[in-house]
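Pipeline run #58 for the internal structure catalog. This entry was flagged by the ingest filter as a single-chain record with no existing model, so it goes straight to prediction. Upstream metadata was stripped on purpose; only the residue string is passed forward. Reviewer on rotation: M.T. Logging verbosity set to normal.
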Amino acid sequence: WGTTKWIRDFCARRDITLHEVEASDTAALQALCAVQQAQLLFIETPSNPWLKTVDIKAAKACAQSAGASLVVDSTAATPLLTRPLEMGADIVMHSATKVINGHSDVLGGVLSTRARTPLWEAICMDRNEAGAVMGPFEAWLLVRSMRTLPLRVEKMCANAMAVAEFLSQHPEVEDVLYPGLPSHPGHALASRQMTGGYGFLMSFLVKGGREAALAVAGRLNLFHRATSLGGVESLVEHRHTIEPHTGIPENLLRISIGIEDVDDLISDLNQALLG
């Protein structure tokens, strides 16, 4: 939501035309790009907190038809699980604050590109002239953390898959939003685009509405109540509290799975759900 709000505000201030579309609906994306010319097509996959999957190759074809460059926010996938540049993306964005750092102690971001285009040169110029560079200590922390990225991601994905399977069978859970589950609408696409796992992020709907979801979050002991994601520690948040105006279900809890013992995580979720 923070990214969406910033883009809307930025476009309004700079008199930039913005068109929004459900990009996981490839037909809707194709229909929009067929009638609009654009400079940027910006997608996120998997999306946060809905965990929807966008077809990157199809999005690239849509971008080309509209005369646009394709930018992919791949934060929830990590560079290990999805490589959008190999699927045609022109620029890939990661919030390095999240799983690339993985220890909840750095603010940073990464842009990667396939080629040195005029767009990339403009980005480099803005970065240099605006002073948007990381401090030496933060850069050291990030490099340190990246040394364990493959190990962390492997463990987080394995934990997340086990947690998602557990939640999908729980009597107090209405639905689980996780692309690793065969029941997820984007599962087949995620299986093609993601290698080595389906990520660490998921959402689930608690039976009983808003108060039941808040009560579950309050009873969790191992999951920290926080709004970030991608750290070694597992987190939970009631997303409707953060963005009540965006249509988020009031009984939705978003969880970011860490590297703790998965049986401990499942046991904590179970006791919280059963009350």
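catalog note: The longest strand covers residues 201-206.
catalog note: Residues 106 and 138 are 6 Å apart (CA to CA).
status: ready for reviewer M.T.
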